[in-house]
Design a protein that fits this description.
2 helices; single chain; 70 residues; alpha+beta; 36% helix; three-stranded antiparallel β-sheet
Length: 70
């Protein structure tokens, strides 16, 4: 079984290094609902986006998160 929380921790760091997502504050995984919640700082406050990662492998989760944040 893949450790999705660990994958998201490293992905968060990598995305924060980019110009496009340097305001990304957090990626939280909810294993019960298989949702990732991304928190992004914007000029008007904190924006939260929920990303469905149900039945995703680790690499599929990475792809889904990146696609949702593009």
């Amino acid at each position: 079984m893949e450790n999705k929380e660990a994958i998201l921790r490293y992905l968060l760091w990598a995305l924060q290094q980019t110009r496009h997502l340097n305001e990304l504050l957090d990626l939280k995984y909810d294993p019960k609902n298989e949702i990732v919640e991304a928190s992004i700082r914007t000029h008007s406050g904190i924006f939260r986006k929920k990303i469905n990662v149900a039945c995703d492998s680790g690499i599929a989760m990475i792809k889904d998160v990146v696609k949702a944040l593009e």
